[in-house]
Write a structure and sequence with these properties.
Blueprint lengths: L1 H29 L3 H4 L11 H14 L7 E2 L8 E2 L5 H13 L4 H4 L2 H18 L1 H11 L2 H13 L3 H4 L9 H25 L3 H5 L3 H22 L7 H19 L5 H21 L4 H29 L6 H20 L1 H9 L33 H6 L1 H20 L2 H17 L12 H29 L7 E2 L2 E2 L2 H11 L1 H9 L1 H6 L3 H25 L8 H13 L16 E2 L4 E2 L10 E3 L5 H8 L23 H6 L3 H10 L2 E7 H4 L9 H8 L6 E6 L2 E6 L1 H5 L1 H6 L6 E2 L5 E2 L5 E6 L3 E5 L2 E4 L1 E6 L3 E6 L5 E9 L5 E9 L3 E6 L16 E2 L2 E10 L2 E10 L3 H6 L2 E3 L3
Parallel strand pairs: 7-8, 17-24
Antiparallel strand pairs: 1-2, 3-4, 5-6, 8-16, 9-10, 11-12, 13-16, 14-15, 17-20, 18-19, 18-21, 18-22, 22-23
Helix pairs in contact: 1-6, 1-8, 1-23, 3-4, 3-27, 6-10, 7-8, 7-10, 7-21, 8-21, 10-12, 10-14, 10-20, 12-14, 13-15, 13-20, 14-15, 16-17, 19-20, 19-21, 20-21, 21-25, 26-27
Length: 868
């Protein structure tokens, strides 16, 4: 007995050590962006949403244990309910609070708080190898589990990129928690089926049979609740379980088996999740939808079980069961649509994840995944290969193999696994309707790893058993057959009693695979299954994204050199009352000094988190406006319009004081990364930005006058100055926008000017300079503007005098004032001069005066009189 226990301990130790090594490998790969994240200047969190998660964490630490659920520091002038589910960022805040001994703001500095936040997703991603291993072990065996865990540890793509050091977003928690949820549902279903529990088991209080399935059900419910508290889209997994419920009920019922066990294990899990959602979520749309979806899931399991039970009790033909379910399903949708069209729209609209809208497709992560690149047509250039390499294709062998296994044995846990895997595959790659969202590849990565691990193990097993059939395994061969029965047993006993114990505990099984043919198979699997994803991961995991240094520099400048908007970044905010007429929250009651910053929605969270300023638009896709945004003023209207008056109206309506642009927003040149095209889609004006011109080298496609007439191009490319685009088209200067700061990096040179990566403009009233001038004379005003990067350009405007003239200018010449913008772009004194056109585009100037313009005149729209 002692020998047996020692052998069991050895097996557990071996597999535990291997699993620990897989965790360490996964963590190492995820830590590769270390130099990018910890760059010596700031902690570079990846992407956009991680910055907002850290904003929530910071706020929670200042108000621990309270968390904000409404935030006025974004979506000006409304503010918004925080759409992120609370658990991910709240758990991080708790971890930091504990490490900081209950007072992290005093015991930990800002860098250490951010460093913990940066490591958080990497650790969660590495932990995912554990439930993956156990799913493989429960479904097949521990060897398949180890292979699957090893693959998820090294797999590149969406799961890796969203679990990298610094990518502090909830997606990695979604993957980890959903995998744990499925693990416990698999365990619950498997043990319930094995113990053959029924409703009579409950009524007879057969706790010996019920104990294990209910234990797994309770744990599944707890983690399902955590999953709902981590992701607002968690109802996708209700969809998975409902499909499984229908499939499994039909299979069991038509095979004459009880379906009671499904209802018994589902009810506790759904009730626990429902209670957690009700207690933990504040009132709101997200909570309502979660509650509705969980209630629907609960009712469907109960209804399917009840119908099966009644049909069996009434001895109705089993083939009528799927027909009854189909009819009731259709009737349910009809009734819901008739009674509550809004609920029907909510439920059916949630299926949009499988077929995103056109505007949703302007977001890179919502594009469908491709097997063949839409640009080159090559498999190796498409997302499927780049994110999964060989495992994407091997997984289809796993699907076929499991379909065969299910057709033979109808194992409930394998059916659940296949349904889960199919839905996850269709969520990211749906060739039937040309849909899916590539971001959901972070879910399917787990399924692909398990399917590939299963196929890999089956191949090893096939080679091993084939070798044993030839007499290469343990035991002797007699006339082409292995010894069996008593003879084999006597041989083993005489040889060594311990061998029998080792065989039973699995140690001898491990030794059995130390053969040449199996070793060659393992090498081939390593080269085909593991080498491609490992090398891809090592090559792609060195950068986790996030703002360029130029963005951080510009927004840090904004934080220190612009007036406070009057809203405390670290406060707890009271949610405005709900307006029954408009069916939305009232706008937040901002202080009089509040203002907004307008940029493209991608950058909203950076503006909130780094600059502590209030963006109009944000990655929640609020504040974008335009025809798709119900015709409201917003970022797309402001940047794409060619009408300066319309841009000013948008700025006035949204309380805009600063405009922040980067080159990507203007990059119709396709020189770096084109976000201009996405803005035109949202604005509903996608055509005419390019034209063809004939050159000595043939016809070329160039940017058109329409492009250069947009506010975005006039600001970022032309610096807001007046420009003659042709003999017939002159763009007047933008009189109410002045450059106040620009970042160091030059992206391209255009018109003799270096185009910097990030530029900050201020929207001002402008000083009015007016006076008398000879009738019919030409009047010109000009100043030389010098930027903080040493670049200069001339702001100039001309007009024909009718005896008087008038200019509005955005630049002051006397420097910043206290309480205003501490700009570092300076203008020389203006020269105002008058003269006559003498032909050949030549003006003979006769009178010239120098004018200084105060900051107060620019900000308050004061008038300065200069007679010529």
């Amino acid at each position: 007995m002692k020998t047996s226990l020692k052998s069991i301990e050895r097996v557990h130790f071996i597999y535990g050590a291997i699993l620990t090594a897989m965790f360490c490998l996964a963590l190492y790969i995820r830590s590769l962006p270390h130099n990018s994240v910890f760059n010596g200047t700031f902690v570079r969190f990846g992407g956009n949403d991680p910055w907002y998660n850290m904003r929530l964490v910071e706020n929670t630490l200042h108000n621990f244990p309270h968390r904000i659920y409404f935030d006025p520091l974004t979506y000006y002038p409304h503010g918004t309910n925080v759409p992120f589910a609370p658990l991910f960022d709240y758990l991080l805040a708790v971890i930091i609070w504990l490490i900081g001994l209950g007072n992290p703001l005093a015991t930990l500095n800002q860098h250490n708080i951010e460093a913990i936040g940066a490591w958080y997703p990497a650790v969660l991603g590495a932990l995912t190898v554990i439930p993956v291993y156990f799913i493989g072990k429960v479904l097949w065996n521990r060897n398949a589990g180890i292979l699957s865990a090893a693959l998820i540890a090294v797999l590149p793509g969406q799961f890796l990129s969203r679990s990298l050091l610094g990518f502090t977003d909830h997606h990695v928690a979604e993957t980890l928690l959903s995998t744990i949820v499925i693990l416990f549902f698999i365990l619950a279903v498997k043990s319930a089926k094995k113990n053959e529990i029924t409703f009579y088991s409950v009524s007879n209080k057969d706790w010996s049979g019920l104990k294990q399935p209910l234990f797994y059900s309770f744990l599944g419910g707890i983690f399902f609740g955590c999953f709902f508290l981590s992701w607002k889209g968690a109802s996708l997994f209700i969809f998975v379980l409902l499909i499984y419920a229908v499939v499994q009920h039909i299979i069991d019922h038509m095979r004459g088996e009880s379906t009671d066990y499904l209802c018994i294990v589902a009810i506790p899990a759904f009730i626990i999740s429902l209670i957690m959602v009700i207690l933990a979520y504040p009132p709101g749309t997200m909570k309502s939808f979660h509650v509705i979806s969980l209630v629907i899931g609960l009712l469907v399991f109960v209804a399917l079980g009840a119908i099966s039970f009644l049909m069996n009790y009434k001895k109705i033909d089993a083939y009528g069961y799927p027909i009854v379910i189909l009819v009731l399903g259709i009737l349910s949708f009809v009734v819901v649509n008739a009674v509550s069209p809004s609920l029907y729209a909510l439920l059916t609209g949630s299926l949009r994840i499988f077929l995103p809208t056109e505007t949703a497709l302007t977001v890179a992560e919502i594009h469908p995944m491709h097997i063949f690149s839409p640009y080159t047509g090559k498999i190796t250039d498409a997302e499927a290969w780049q994110w999964f390499t060989t495992s994407f294709f091997i997984a289809f062998i796993g699907f076929a193999w499991l379909a065969y296994e299910i057709a033979r044995k109808f194992r409930a846990e394998e059916i659940l696994f296949v349904v889960w895997s199919v839905v996850m595959l269709l969520a990211c790659w749906n060739p039937f309707i040309g849909g899916g969202q590539n971001r959901f590849a972070y879910f399917y990565a787990v399924n692909a790893a398990l399917l590939t691990g299963f196929v890999s193990w089956k191949l090893i097993e096939f080679v091993a058993f084939r070798g044993e059939a030839r007499g290469e395994g343990t035991g002797e061969k007699i006339k082409g057959k292995k010894k069996g029965g008593a003879a084999a047993q006597k041989t083993k006993e005489k040889a060594k009693p311990v061998a029998d114990n080792e065989e039973r505990t699995g140690v001898a099984k491990l030794k059995r695979y130390a053969r040449a043919d199996i070793i060659i198979t393992l090498i081939l699997i390593g080269l085909v299954v593991f080498y491609p994803p490992l090398t891809t991961s090592l090559a792609t995991a060195k950068y986790s994204g996030g703002p360029e240094n130029d963005w951080y520099e510009s927004l840090s400048w904004m934080k220190e050199n612009t007036p406070s908007p009057g809203v405390d970044y670290y406060a707890l905010y009271e949610e405005p009352p709900f307006n029954e007429t408009t069916n939305r929250l009232e706008d937040y009651d901002y202080p009089p000094e509040a203002y907004s910053v307008i940029s493209w929605w991608d950058y909203g969270h950076w503006i909130t988190r780094i600059a502590h300023r209030i963006p109009v638009a944000n990655p929640f896709q609020q504040g974008i406006g335009g025809p798709i945004g119900n015709g409201n003023p917003g970022a797309c209207v402001f940047f794409v319009t060619r009408d300066v008056n319309q841009a000013n109206e948008v700025a006035d309506a949204l309380g805009v004081r600063y405009v922040v642009s980067d080159f990507m927003m203007a990059d119709a040149f396709n020189a770096f990364y084109n976000k201009f095209g996405a803005m035109t889609v949202w604005a509903g004006d996608t055509g005419g930005y390019y034209t063809q011109v004939k050159t000595d080298e043939g016809t070329r496609v160039v940017l058109s006058a329409k492009y250069f007439s947009t506010i975005e191009a006039r600001l970022h490319v032309l610096d807001g100055i007046g420009v003659a685009l042709s003999e017939d088209l002159f763009l007047e200067p933008l009189r109410h926008y002045r450059l106040v700061h620009e970042s160091p990096s030059t992206i391209i040179t255009f018109g003799g000017q270096e185009i910097k990566f990030v530029k900050v403009f201020e929207y001002v009233k402008g000083a009015r300079i007016e006076g008398t001038a000879p009738n019919g004379s030409i009047v010109e005003i000009a100043t030389t503007v010098s930027t903080n990067q040493g670049r200069t350009f001339v702001y100039i405007e001309r007009e024909m005098s009718n005896g008087t003239y008038e200019f509005i200018v955005p630049y002051s010449t006397e420097g910043p004032v206290e309480g205003g913008t501490n700009f570092d772009v300076f203008a020389s004194p203006y020269t105002v001069k008058t003269g006559q056109d003498v032909g050949n585009a030549t003006v003979m100037w006769t009178t010239e005066k120098e004018v200084n313009v105060s900051e107060a005149a620019v900000m308050e729209g004061k008038t300065i009189t200069v007679d010529l």
